[in-house]
Structure formats: C-alpha cells, structure tokens
Amino acid sequence: MRSTLFYIPKEFLGIPVFGLGWVLAIWVIAAGVFLVQTVRREGWTRDVFVQLGLAFLVGAFIAFVLPGLAEEKGLPVRGYGTMLLLAMVAGIGLTIWRGRPRGFDDDFVISLALWVFVAGIAGARLFYVVEYWERIRVIGADNRLLIGPTLLNMINLAQGGLVVYGSVIGGICAVVIYTRLKKAPLLATLDLVAPSFMLGLALGRIGCFLNGCCFGAVCELPWAVRFPPGSLAHIHQLEKGQAFLLGLKFEPQDPPRVRDVEKGSEAEARGIKVGDRILAVGDIPTSTVIQAQAALIEAVVNSSQVCLTIEGHTKPVCLAVEKIKSLPVHPTQIYSSINAFLICLFLLAFERVKRHDGQVVAMMFTLYSVTRFLLEILRDDEPWVFAGRSFGLTIAQTFSIGIFLATVGFWFYLFRTKPGLHAGPAFTQASV
To answer: Could you give the domains of the chain?
Structure first.
C-alpha cells in the first residue's frame, strides 16, 4: 500500500502551481491549441462547444478545487489518482491504435474518450457516494450536515472511491449520446472501446491496491497481504472485532468497553480486564467506540507510547506502541487487475472471429459480470444485502446478476438479427 507517491510544492519560482498558476496556464494553452485545430478542421460544430465546456470545467477544477486539496507539504500525488490517469492514457492509446484501421479517426476517439471519461467518473463517483454515504458525509457538533466538507469529500477522487458499474453505466450513456451526435455506428463503437475499458480497469485496480481499498477477506494463503495501521482494511477488521488493537478489542456499543484482551499482550500484563471502560486515550476523551479506536490508531501511527485512562484505575495505564498491521487478507485488487487484463486479451482475440457488431461488448459484459460475482466472494469491503455474508449478496453481486441477465437478452437480439460489420464514421463519410 502506498496511497501517497509524492507531493507537488504549492509554489514554483514564486508563482502558485495550482489555482491561478502554472497548471492552469498550461491547461489553457493546451486546450486552446486543441480547440483551434478542431475549429480549423471542422468549423464551429456542436462538438467544439462541448469540448469548450469540458475544458472550462477542467480549468475550474484546477483553479478552485485543487488548492483546497493541498496539504501542508503541497498537493499529494496519490497512487490511486496516478493509476487512474495511466488507465485513461492507456485506454485512449489502445482505442486509437485499434480505431484507425476500422475507420475511427484520432479526433473522434479523443473526443469520445473525453465524453466517456467524464461521464464514467461521474457515474462511478455517484454510485460510490450513494452506496457509502455514511463515509462521505461530515456531521458537525450540533449533528447537522456540514455542506462544505461533505462536498469536498464527494469530489476527492484521489483518495479512491469509484464503483465500476457506475462508470460502465455513465460511459455507455456517453457513447450512446456521442454516436448519435456524430452519426457513428453505436455497436461498432462499443466494440471498439470494450477492450480499452478492461485495460483501464486492470490498471485502475492497481491504484486500488496502492490506496488500500477494495480489500479482501481474511485468509492465510502464502500471497496474502497485510495493510498498515489506519488503513481501510485495518479499520474494518477493528469494527468487526476481528483484530486486536494494542491487545484490546472493544464492545460494539458505546461507551467503549473492553470486550477481549489478547493473551500474553502488554495490555494483559498491565492489568486491563474485560469490561473495563476507556475514559480517555492520552489527552483525548473517548465517549464512543469510534473515538477510542481512532485515538488508538492515531497513537499507533505517530507515537511510541499511549496512556489510557480507565474507569476504576487510580492512574493511567501506559502501553508501548507496536506498529501493528491488519490481519492478512486476499489481495483482491490484484485478482481483479489480472482478471480485467485477461478479459482484455480475450476480447482482442475474440474480435477476429466476431460476425456481428456488438458481440465484443456483449462478451465483455458476460465475462465481467460472472467473474465480478465470483471475486466478490473473496472481498470484504462491501456491505451485504438481503442476508449476511454466508447467504446474502453484495451490491456488486446484485448488479452482476442484473447485467448478466440483460446481456443474455442482448445476445438473443444479436442472434436474431442479420450478421454484419460496420466501419467507423471516417470510412462511412468517405464512401458517401
């Protein structure tokens, strides 16, 4: 896990890097050059105005949002965001390479990629915000929703938080709208972008691994991984009572009381017993289990010793801090990355024998819905619906079933229609 790769300084040569600074200037120049070239080639078409709107949105994000995301050391470059960018570049590159001999020129692909990327990210983030609203929202001391911090959490993509099926729905909507505007063949376009989506997903899952999200269930396999204290996997295991924190486990209900003491731990040696109530961790009062766990995790990350104020004890109990990690878990992010990469390779091979536009994207949905359903069995980060882990389904598994059934219907449609392949808009226009 490496959520932060490095920091970009806030200033360079006395000029801000973000906000009204270097990055915005570079973006304005690059977007301006691209728009001028498009206008010279196509004139003031609707597509130009769409690109202009997207360029404005990106510029506004650079000018007004990025400065708020900067920390004391500068703007953190997250592993998740970096892999997301690489995924986009690799996906566009593969689409351009495959699109040229099929009649899809580079400008069409790049414009389509902007549409799909923006719509896909928006859909993926929207699904995540709805599914994990409890993590996103920020509640003040008066139990009222804090709008500003909540909005920042909603758009903070660098920390992770995208749902694949949300990106699929958003991306497909973008493809449908864009192909109608450009009078391009829809199914041929979907076949073109399907392998690129899987390649992007393969790289994006590596970003999930660097970020520590989308983690698996506890296991003892030789290739199991352990995440650092304070990671999502570690916190999840603490909340479920799976892992000890400085030799302690807490009752799930408030106030924070010790549910179990690890045998042979320093906590046991210092006389902490089951049922003891933790009043404070260091100087931090703890009236809830979440407060106690958060304070202990903070101490594990930043301190060498932590002192607990315990009800009934005449003086604080001090424990030496051990740099503990999470329990070993399945590296489901890597499983998912390998799965997406193999699907990408299979789609590239399958395209050589397809007889009908739409078969490649249909094969993508068939394979991914099945493999995603199976991979969810090994994951432990999503809530289970309808029933518990033993008999229930996660939200992703529910969507996988729906996608699979819809794809079966799509295959039936393809088999009932006359086989045929269509060239991209460049060849279509050239033949008119």
So the answer is: 4-18+70-218+330-430 (no CATH), 244-320 (2.30.42.10)
